[in-house]
Amino acid sequence: MPQLLDPNFHRTVVLLIHHDDEGCFGVVLNRGSGITARRLCESVELSWAGDPEEEIGWGGPVQPQTGWVLFGDTAGLEPEEDVQSLVPGVHFAGSLGVLEQMAQSPPAALRLLVGYAGWGPGQLEKELAEGAWLLAPADSESVFRVPEEALWEHVLRGLGVEPATLVASRGVH
User: Fold this and answer.
1) Spatial contact of 165 and 125, defined as CB atoms under 8 Å apart
2) pTM for this model (two decimals)
3) Which residues are registered as beta bridge partners of 67?
4) Which end of the chain has fewer surrounding CB within 10 Å, N or C?
5) How far apart are CA 40 and CA 29, in angstroms?
C-alpha cells in the first residue's frame, strides 16, 4: 500500500511461507536480483542446465546470502524433509539438495530467490491493522506465470482493486 514507505517493499508482492506467534517469513515475488541462476549455481559448485541468462529473484532484504526454491511439481524430486506444499501447485524449499535437483533439469514452474522478508512477533499484524498491506490468496498462476513487472497490478485487480485508486491512509477501509 502507498503508506508503506520502506523502499524495499514499494509495490511488492510477498508470498507468506510461515506465520505463527513468533513472527512471519515470506519471499518477494516481483523483484529481480541481477544474479543469474547459472552464477548462483556456480557459487555453490552446481551446474545449471537451464537458460544461462535466467535471473533469480530478490526474496527480500533479510539474509541475502540465503537461497530459496519455489517450484510447481514434485514429480521426480527425491523426498526432502524441508519441502513444503504451500497451495496447490506451489512448493517451497531452502535446501541445497532441492536446488541441485532443480538445476539439473529446471521445470517450467520454477523460481529461485535470494534473501527473504521477515517480521517479528506481532509486527505484520500491526502493519496490516495500519493498512500497510493487502492480503490476497496465493495461486500457482500468480507465482509462476505472471511476469514480475505485472504481478502487483495482477494481484490487486484479482482483489477487485483498481491500482490507480489506492491512497495512503491509516487502517483498513
Assistant:
1) no
2) 0.90
3) 114
4) C
5) 18
Rounded CA-CA distance 140/117 in Å is 20
The angle at the Cα of 42, spanning 37 to 47, to the nearest 5 degrees, equals 80
Residue 135, Cβ density class (10 Å: 0-12 exposed, 13-18 middle, ≥19 buried): exposed
**Amino acid code (one letter) for 15:** L
C-alpha dihedral sign at 102, 105, 109, 115: positive
Report how far residue 113's alpha carbon sits from residue 116's, in angstroms, rounded to the nearest whole number: 8
In whole angstroms, give the CA distance from residue 57 to residue 166: 26
- Name the nearest CA neighbour of 91 among 41, 154, 152, 138: 138
Q: What is the pLDDT of residues 92-126, one digit of tens each?
A: 999 999 999 999 999 999 999 999 999 999 999 99
User: Among 39, 104, 47, which Cα is nearest to 71's?
Assistant: 104
Task: Give the Cα separation of 11 and 134 in Å (integer).
Answer: 11
pLDDT at 173: 45
What proportion of the chain, given as a percentage, has pLDDT over 70?
Answer: 91
Which cell goes with 130?
Answer: 495500519
